[in-house]
Write a structure and sequence with these properties.
The complex is a heterotrimer.
Chain A: H1 3-26, H2 30-50, H3 54-75, H4 98-126, H5 133-141, H6 150-158, H7 160-179, H8 192-215, H9 223-239, H10 250-273, H11 286-310, H12 318-331
Helix pairs in contact in A: 1-2, 2-3, 3-9, 6-7, 7-10, 7-11, 8-9, 9-11, 10-11
Chain B: H1 3-25, H2 29-51, H3 61-94
Chain C: H1 2-26, H2 30-56, H3 59-92
The chains are: A mainly alpha, B mainly alpha, C mainly alpha.
Chain lengths: 356, 95, 94
Amino acid sequence: MNSTTLLAFDALLLISTVSLAWASLASSDERRGVILFMAFGLLLAMAWSRLQAPDVALAEAAIGAGLSGALLLSAVRREPVGLSRTGAEPVQNHEKTDYRMTLRWTVTLLCAAFTATLGWAYLSALSFGPHDGLPRAIAANLEASGVSNPVTAVLLNFRAWDTLLELAVLLTAALGILALGKESPAYQPAGVVFEGLIRWLVPLLILTAGYLLWVGAHAPGGAFQAGATLAAAGVVLRLAGRHRIGLPAGIRLRVLMAAGVGVFLLVGLVLMLAGRSFLGYPPALASLLILVIETAAMLAIAATLVLAFAGGRPQTDVLANTAVKLEASTASGPGPARPAGSGGTSNDCIPEKKAC
Amino acid sequence: MLTAQWLYGLAGCLVTGIGLGNALLGSSLLKRVLAINVMGAGVFMMLIAVAYRGPDLAPDPVPHALVLTGIVVAVSATALALALARRLDREQDDG
Amino acid sequence: MIDVLSSVLLVSGLFFFLAGSIGLLRLPDLHSRLHALTKADNLGLGLLIAGLAVSSREPLMMLKLLLVWLAVLAASAASAHLIARHARRQETGH
């Protein structure tokens, strides 16, 4: 492919990407903004594969466009209350005071100045010439790392400490989500068409997740992409009304979410007790250890992302629900009337969500 | 410095600036969360543009690992922010 | 020769995508827009995949691409059905 067509492709892609970013944030309808953000994520995935970053492209398409989009879309509400309010300021203030206008203009100019400074810093950093110290060191040590995909080697061997901390960040977010409230109500049971779709889609997604996990050692793939695919299977199951079998219940959920950090720490400590440094794999066992850690990380990532989509503590949570029931029985008489209809046990139907 | 590098990098700076402006001036909480995600995407563009070394050489894997980590951290931060916003909603509706 | 065939398939797939996008922008009603989008984009994707499969010359890659097309076909048909059903229910008021 000659360079002018590639340049035209790059220019088109970048113009579309920047316009999508602008349009997604400038649109007045929140739902449209989120959908434009998902399209922005997909164009980004195309940009990553053009820049020879297929691992990142897979992760961006699955997590950045897909799961982030689903999370944000489920947070959009029909009436503009709460999420559409910042503090006590009304959304449309027709008598915009001069103070507020000058504030907005100042902030906009400062952001433009920030962007210009960032661009200047970026260009002057690039003008120092190509640095290939790190890539050469990685290429030299790749056989001893246990995998042949350099990105997996960097993530799980050379910079394993960073990945451990990242899994800890994921666990912290999951703890916060668990502590902040109950899950959002389940969707209505799926109709015939959607049911027929998930019957083969969910097994295909699970199979693809296992494949991505295995192939991450020697080709683009790995634990994050596999975890995101598994999470997509869980999200699709929730959308079809089966909100109980997407996630395991109670103690198993906690074990699964802690397994990512736990297995990583266990491997590191065992290696330390065996006389090596923390997370310093012996080259003979490196690929096996990396596979074990990646499997635990995939399950933890999938469980956390499905929990994030569920939005809170699962309702099959015995301990928390017992406390709530005790509270409710001492507070008032009969509980709120449940909407009639779908014959499900505790499925509340929310009209603004789809399939209702 | 390759053409693709400064093209994608400067576009990344633009996207970061757009995201920052909307994160500070956004009219609703959801818009601000969206803007922070867009800011993150701009930073990732800059990182991957730095990692690109042309069609003949293999790209630098360290920025790729950084961006992968960043994508997962961004989605978990978004999830926590949305859970906080939902709880804020409930508190405001009740009280 | 294979490259010429693959280019022809890719360009005709792009033509169908163009038709679907123009339909999305210009048609008046949700249902007609859904119709244009699903029909044109499924066929467009099929031609695109055929062009890629022809140019890859590996049977395993062709099989994977076929699987991708079938999955997208089924998923987009199901999503179009769900969107249309939701819109109809909103119009008739449940």
